[in-house]
Amino acid sequence: MLKSFPKGGVHPPENKLTPDKKIEILSIPKQVTIPIAQHIGAPAKIIVNKKDKVKVGQIIAQSGGFVSANIHSSVSGTVFKIDNIADASGYKKPAIVINVEEDEWDENINRNTDLIKTFSFDKTEILKKIQDAGIVGLGGATFPTHVKLLPPKGMIAEVLIINGVECEPYLTADHRLMLEKGEEILVGTKILMKALDVNKAAIGIENNKLDAIAHLKKLSKNYDGISVTALKVQYPQGGEKQLIKAVTGREVPSGGLPIAVGAVVHNVGTVFAVYEAVQKNKPLFERVVTVTGKSVSEPKNLMVRTGTPISMLIEAAGGLPKDTGKIISGGPMMGKALNSTEVTVTKGTSGILILPREESKRREIKPCIRCAKCVGVCPMGLEPFLLMTLAEKAMVERSEKEDVLDCIECGSCSYTCPSDRPLLDYIRLGKSAVGAMRRAQSMK
Fold it and tell me: Is 248 exposed, middle or buried (0-12, 13-18, 19+ CB in 10 A)?
C-alpha cells in the first residue's frame, strides 16, 4: 500500500502536460532585472554600482543576515541601473538591472558537465559553499538552505527527506530534473547527509512519476543510506509536514518545525543546486521552470536564468494564447496571479501557468451551507470556514487561538467549497493579522 498523510487532501486534475518534454536551455535576454529579495528573511545588500562590469556568477548583493541569501548575476555585462521595480507581487522592490554584453563566467565556476561523484569537504566547508552560493529552497518557500542545515541547539537531525513529490497540477520541472539529473541529485543528497551528520535519506515521489521512481531506485543502489519511497497521489503530498508524516510516520507538532521530529526536508531542485555549488562552485542563478497551460501551443520545461522576463518564456512556448484569462507564477493551487509578463524569473519561480478565461473566472460567492467539506480536506485539521469568519470580523486573538498560523496555504479548502467562498484569501488575511499582532507584542 502506498504511503500518504492521514488527514484531508484532495485530488485535482493533474494536467501534467509536459512530463515528456526534456529540459531546454532558454536563450539569454538582452537585459535582466534581478530582484534583491528572492528569499524568506532579510533582503540582501547591494554591493555593485551603476556602470559596474559583472560576470556570470558574480555576487552582486550580499546576504543581509543569518536568515538571508546572496544574490548573483545571471549574466555578464554592465549594471544599467539600480531601482525599485515591481516584482511578481506587484509591489516595487529594489532590483539590479543589467545590460547583457557577452557570456563571460566567473573563473571559479567549473563549467564541465561531467558528473563529479566524490567529495572530501567537511561539514563546515559544505555549509560555507552552500551559503556563498545563495542557495534557497526551490520548492516555492525560498528558505535559505544553510539555515536548515544548522539545527537549533538541543535538536538533532536523524533523517533527510528529499521532496520529489511535485503535487501541484501542471508542473513537471522537478520530474524532468529527476530523470535528467538523477545522479547529480543523489550526489547532492550525500553531500547534505554529511552536512547534517545523518546516515539515512529518503526521496519521496508521488506514484504518478513511475519513470522517476524506477530511475532513482536503480541509481540509489550505489548510494548507501538513500532509499526511494513511492507515495500516493494526494494533494498536498509535497507539503513539508505531510511528507514527513507519509515517509516517517512522525507528526510535526502545531507551531513546530520539522527538526522537532528529527527531520530535514529539501526539494530535489535544491539538492541539484547543492551539487552544483559544492562540486562545481556554481552559485544559484538559474533554474528549471515549467511553462504550460491547456491552450499553450508548445508547453515546455526550460532552464532559465534569474532576471529573465516572463514574456521570453511565454514566447518560447509558442506565445500567449488568445483565450488567456490569467497568468500564474507557480501552480494553480498555490501560485500567484501576475499582472504583467515583464516581471522576471526568480529563484522561487517553479512554473508559469497560462489559464484560459473560462477556467480563471471567479464564481459568485454564495453563503456557507455548513457542509464541512473544507474541514474534511484540510491536511492540518483546521476549520477553514471558521477561520474565514474570524478574519472577516477581525477577531485576531481568536484566530490565533484557532491555530490559523498552522495553515500551509495549500488551497484545498477553497478548491472543494461548493459555495465558491474565498476561504484561503481570508485565511491569509487572518495569518497576516496574527503575525502583525505578535510583532507588536514582542516590541513592547
Answer: buried
